[in-house]
Amino acid sequence: MPDEADFLWHLGSVPRSRPPTGHWTVNIGEALSGKEYASHQRSAALLAEVFSNSSFAALQERYTNFKNEIAGVAAAFESRQITREVVRTITATVDDVLTALRRFADRTGHALSERYGRESQESLSLKRALSYEFDNEFPYRFAWHLRNYSDHQGSVPLHIKQEAGLSPSGSVAQQFQVVVDSRALLSNYDWHSLVRRDLEHIDGEFSIEAVIDGVQLSCRRAYCKILLAQEPLIVAAIENIREFARRAAPADDFVAVFIKAPPSDISSVTFSPISTDLADVAETALQQARVIAA
Question: Which three-class secondary structure state does DSSP give residue 42?
Answer without folding.
Answer: helix
